[in-house]
Amino acid sequence: MSEPFARHRQPWRSDEVGKLRTLAAKGKGLKEIAKALTRTEESTRERARIEGIEIAKKR
After folding, report:
1. What is the dihedral of CA 33, 37, 38, 43, to 10 degrees?
2. Greatest CA separation found in the chain?
3. Can you tell me the distance from the alpha carbon of 43 to that of 8, in angstroms, rounded to the nearest whole number?
4. pLDDT of 5 higher than 80
5. In which band, very low, low, confident or very high, does the pLDDT at 7 lie, cut at 50, 70 and 90?
6. Which of 15, 27, 39, 50 could form a disulfide with 43 if both were Cys (CB 3.0 to 4.6 A apart)?
7. Phi and psi for 55 in degrees, rounded to 5?
8. C-alpha 34, offset from chain centre
């Protein structure tokens, strides 16, 4: 059997939430924030919703 994916379902650390807040405040898009945090877009979107953080919609 193959090894499970190492980052799967990792809990959010406080420094990651802080970085999420900082990047969102700078007006970065979801894809860019997720890549910076090495998280999926779905995970990043969900955490932002939980924390009450607005992420800019890039068009």
Report:
1. -70
2. 43
3. 11
4. no
5. low
6. 39
7. -110, 130
8. 4
> Dihedral (C-alpha) 28, 13, 9, 6: value to the nearest 10 degrees?
100
* Burial of 34 (C-beta count, 10 Å sphere; 0-12/13-18/19+): buried
**pTM of the predicted protein model:** 0.82
For residues 21 and 6, what is the distance between their CA atoms, to the nearest angstrom?
Answer: 25
What contacts 45, CB < 8 A, 6 or more positions away?
A: 30, 55
- pLDDT (mean) for 33-41: 95
Copy the structure tokens of residue 20. Answer: 């999420």
Cβ pair 2, 15 in contact under 8 A: no
Three-state SS at 56: strand
Q: Which two tokens stand for residue 16?
A: 């990651």
